[in-house]
């Protein structure tokens, strides 16, 4: 299914996942929508005129400079995805976070399954504050407004590669679950990474190739869960389970 869309989330729920992983960005009129980048990616986007975005131009389509209504003119489901040849082609736009929550909650209730958790990434970094997204305090406030209105805070994890948004969450919403995302190229020790963060997160979420049994044990010793990303092969999933991880992020939950 097209990434970060309502059909994708409902399909994942039908496969039995416990948690919907998604990426959040902010529009010019302060709406929270789902998008892996704060701009329209050339690999998935069809322009209102039916043409495709050129790679060198994609960052000009800055979602933070568009109203929510403007973003709905761009299709993100019909262009064949080069990395996911099995992906279905269907018309889709980048949805409001509130719409995703409403759809997922209704689907869970209709199908008599447990209500899902939501693992929401703040797409934010210091170099692009107030260019592609608001600064951390405003980003968190805008995101938490939706989460609070929908009364799902107990089932939400806020994840980020940027410690700043997690620090804001920890300071203002200390009961919220947090997940520190770690890139594969980050060679700092676990203690160094946690020292920069300044508090103990609920979850440590590294690139899956960084994970081994000793890392999992070190995190569990600190009462931190380990959720590895993004593993798309059955053998890798089985190895991570053997290492003792608490969860796995995958583009292919059907592998479970």
Offer a concise description of the structure.
The protein has 256 residues and is of the alpha/beta class.
Explain what this protein looks like in three dimensions.
The chain has 256 residues and is of the alpha/beta class. It has a single domain, classed as TIM Barrel (Alpha-Beta Barrel). The chain has helices at 6-14, 68-71, 97-110, 136-149, 163-172, 190-197, 213-221, 234-243, and strands at residues 19-26, 32-34, 117-122, 156-160, 177-182, 203-206, 225-228, 247-248. An eight-stranded mixed β-sheet has the order 2-1-3-4-5-6-7-8. Strand 1 (19-26) and strand 2 form a beta hairpin. Helix 1 (6-14) packs parallel to helix 3 (97-110) and helix 4 (136-149) packs across helix 5 (163-172). It is globular and about 55 Å long. The protein starts with 5 loop residues before the first helix and ends in an 8-residue tail after the last strand.
Q: Which properties best describe this structure?
A:
256 residues; alpha/beta; 8 strands; TIM Barrel
